[in-house]
Amino acid sequence: MANENIITFEETMAWFQSTEHKGAIGLTVKFPIPEANVQAFIEFYKDYTPYVLDEDGCLQFGFHQDWKDPSVFWLVESWASTSILLEHLGPNSRKGTKYEGEAPLKIMAELGAKPEPAALYLVENASK
User: Fold this and answer.
1) pTM for this structure?
2) Which UniProt keywords are listed (predicted)?
3) For the chain, what is the mean pLDDT?
4) What distance in Å separates the CA atoms of residue 44 and residue 111, rounded to the nearest whole number?
5) Which of 19, 26, 97, 101 counts the most CB atoms within 10 A of its CB?
C-alpha cells in the first residue's frame, strides 16, 4: 500500500503558488547526502544558515543530522508566508552575497543532495 502522505517537490511548489493561505508556513525536507560529502555538506549549511536566518520573514531555518543515519539531514524551516518562502527560493534572494538566488541549490546539487519534501504545515501564532 502506497503512503498517501508522501509529497513531491513539484506538488509542494504547485501548492505554494496556488494556495490562498496568507499565514505562516512550515516545512520539513529530507536531504540524503552521499557519505563522501557529509562533512562538506555540514560545512556548507553552517556557513549558509545565517544568511537565510537574516532574510525577512524567516521564522526558523536549520539542518539537523539524523540520529540513525548520519548521511541524512532534515531541514526544518518556517516562513511568515508562502509568498516570502517563494521569494527565498527565487533569483533575487540574498542579493549581493555568495548565496544569491540559486547558488545554494547548485552547491547542494554538487554535493549530491537530493531533497525530498517530507512535511508541509500551517504555522499558528508565528512571529519574528
Assistant:
1) 0.86
2) Monooxygenase, Oxidoreductase
3) 90
4) 9
5) 26
